[in-house]
Amino acid sequence: MKLSRRVWSVACLVLLAAILAPLAWAALAPIALDSHDELFAIPKGTWARRMAGDKVEILPSEVHLTQGANDVLLLRNLDDVPQIFGPVLIMPGQSFRLPFETVSVNDFACTAHASGQMRVVVDAMPAPGWPRLRWRLQRIDFLKRFNLSWKN
Amino acid sequence: MRALKRFLLALALGCALPLAPQLACAADANALGLKAGVFDPPRQAPDFTLRGSDGKELKLSSFRGKLVVLEFGYTSCVDVCPVSLAMLAQARKQLGALAEQVQVIYVTVDPERDTPERMKRYLGAFDPAILGGSGTPEQLARVRRDYGISANKKVIGPGKDDYVIGHSSYLYFIDRKGSLRALLPFGRTANDVAHDAAILLKN
Fold first, then answer.
1. What is the least distance, in Å, from the CA of B9 to any CA of chain A?
2. Measured distance CA(B135)–CA(B124) in Å, rounded
């Protein structure tokens, strides 16, 4: 059965709309996360893995937060030993929740990183359009890299 | 029917009670609205005994009943410490009458140069109420380890005193009961310190 030219045109338009609609949403919809917390956790057994020579990356040396969206750094130690995590010494089972209210660059001494430093960059809320679309795409990549969930 | 209701109520309470402290802590940490980073659950602040800049013994646990703001630094520091101490002095002024219930303790990371007398002179220029703490290198290393403070000496010249020390610059908030509640990184304002101190004095 041959489809008419008109049907093909409509099908193409529908396909195009199906591609563009999510992109338009991602570029224009306001950013509203369920929580302002950006969670990084030291899993149980990390110390033992490090002692065995495994180089475990838990916390990137540069963390980007967004003011008004995910602007609270939440560090959690699920391991059995105290850990210097980011800027602080955190006991087993303890969390440290650090809010950021302004767009800023914050450097912390951090023995967990080879550079001895950790940087927390607090960016402004991206404007609608390409900046907001890019923010969402980068976030998907970031969440995948550190096995985090979107709800963080 | 009434017996069943009682049984269900008892069951619900039995399940909820063990979780109550954790839930209370989580709610506490989020609800206070502190500008500082919050530890959840808080732990007892590691105690220490040093030589105070007032010439007396400086024992952290003897300040129970007051809010202690603990900072680490050294009197030869040219960038971070003067800014931080001036900010703390300003925060104490903003607190007004409440300032009497806040004790700022400044522990040196440079025991070789920071004698109690030198610390008293230095701190007095900012606020005479700030207490300095010095001690042996071993005592101070232990305190730094307990609080996760790093201090790295870097030689910058041939002389004995030609060195600087890169150190963590945080303010630790220890509440009236001696619990380590919060940490404020360097760069925050006197308003933030006064804001958090006022909250922690009440909670």
1. 30
2. 19
